[in-house]
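[audit] Reproducing an earlier prediction to check determinism. Same input, same settings, fresh worker. If the tokens differ from the archived copy the diff job will pick it up downstream; this log only records the rerun itself.
[audit] input (118 residues):
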Amino acid sequence: MPGVESMGHGSQFTYFLTAPMQAFCQLAGITSDIDTDTYANAENILFSALEEYEGILCTSVGLNNVWGQILPDPFLRRLILRFIFCRAVLFYFHSDEHEHLPTCLPSLPESVSQTQRP
């Protein structure tokens, strides 16, 4: 798992936007000695989750017009989906520190924005 232990400087947020699986492993304390097949399976689960977020986001009722302009661009859509994943992971890893969750304007639809634990 390349790069998991090489993050010494920089932002956790930026790490999630550029390498979400590695950022998750780093946050969870998973080291690079993980089995390659296990890592590949975890990446597949992440990709499935991002696809699920994409479906929910694109079909959200009352979606702000700005999102409608951004989502057709594959690069920007990927960044937004990684932002949603980052926010979800931080929400559950640091359940008592919600004031430190990343935010965006316009706000994400409630369907993809964690505001409370289930």
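[audit] rerun output stored. Observation attached for the diff report: The CA atoms of residues 12 and 36 lie 23 Å apart.
[audit] end
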